[in-house]
Every structure is written in structure tokens, then in C-alpha cells.
Specification:
CATH class: Alpha Beta
CATH superfamily: D-tyrosyl-tRNA(Tyr) deacylase
Largest sheet: 6 strands, mixed
Number of domains: 1
CATH topology: D-tyrosyl-trna(Tyr) Deacylase, Chain: A
Order of helices and strands: EEEHEEEHEE
CATH architecture: 3-Layer(bba) Sandwich
Radius of gyration: 15 Å
Helix content: 10-25%
Structural class: alpha/beta
């Protein structure tokens, strides 16, 4: 499982020119689900995401987590995080989970985040989405479940 976490001043996702999700200050998280992923991995990833201390404190040091700043989440499914570009110029996505399983785990992640964070918005799984954000910092972290203990 892969998360690309971006600290954002604000963000939104549109589908067919209609805003479907938006946040003020918080994280935009692009979520890729791999073939071997499951709820146990998702739980670890959500715990790590929500515990990340990358918001500035009163001294400007990255020391606060999303709940400490009343941050919001915009969660976007993105199977292209599993692009394999080793051969040729056309990426392969065979390492990504099958759509039904990926959607199930994506919805699981959304529900787990909603248990802890007041404002969680999403895109739409499988839709052609346009994500707009004002990246704060910029501060971007790539979190891969293979790197978690």
C-alpha cells in the first residue's frame, strides 16, 4: 500500500466540473492499493498517517499531528502509484490490486480515518478526477507499507 501525503492549505476534487470533496488545512492523500494489501496493512498505514507529526508548532518546528491542528483529510484513490516503469515507455499496473479489492480497501481506509478525524472528504473510486491543492511548504511524504515495521 502506498500513500502520497501532501500538507495543503486547501484542496478540492472535481468530477465532471462538480466539486465532490474539499478541505481547508490538512492532508491530501493519494492512496494506492497493491495486490498483497489487506486490512492489517491498511490499519498500520492509517495509524502512521494520523500520527505523522509534520504540522508546525508555535516555534515553527514540525511537531504536531493532524488532530492537534484540527486538520482535515481529502482521500483520493490512485492506482497509478503502482506504475511499473522498468521496461519500455508504457507503465504496467499489474502490481495494483484488482479494482473490486482496491475499492473495498480504499473504503475501509476512509471509514477508519472518519473514526478519528472530523472532516474527511473523498474523490470517487475509478472516476476521472481533477485534484487542485495549495501545497503548504511544499511538504510531501511518500509512505510505503513495505517500509513500516
Amino acid at each position: 500500500m502506498k500513500f502520497v501525503i501532501q500538507v495543503a492549505k486547501n484542496a478540492n476534487v472535481t468530477i465532471d466540473n462538480e466539486v465532490r470533496g474539499q478541505i481547508d488545512y490538512g492532508f491530501v492523500v493519494l492512496i494506492g492499493v497493491g495486490q498483497d494489501d489487506n486490512e492489517e496493512i491498511a490499519d498500520k498505514m492509517v495509524k502512521k498517517l494520523l500520527g505523522m507529526r509534520i504540522f508546525p508548532d508555535e516555534s515553527g518546528k514540525t511537531n504536531l499531528s493532524i488532530d492537534q491542528v484540527n486538520g482535515q483529510l481529502l482521500l483520493i484513490s490512485q492506482f497509478t502509484l503502482y506504475a511499473n516503469c522498468r521496461k519500455g515507455n508504457r507503465p504496467s499496473f499489474t502490481d495494483a490490486a484488482a479494482p473490486d479489492e482496491a475499492n473495498r480497501l480504499y473504503e475501509y481506509i476512509v471509514s477508519k480515518c472518519r473514526e478519528k478525524i472530523k472532516h474527511v472528504d473523498t474523490g470517487e473510486f475509478g472516476a476521472d478526477m481533477h485534484v487542485t491543492l495549495t501545497n503548504e511548504g511544499p511538504f510531501t511524504i511518500v509512505l510505503d507499507s513495505r517500509d513500516l515495521a
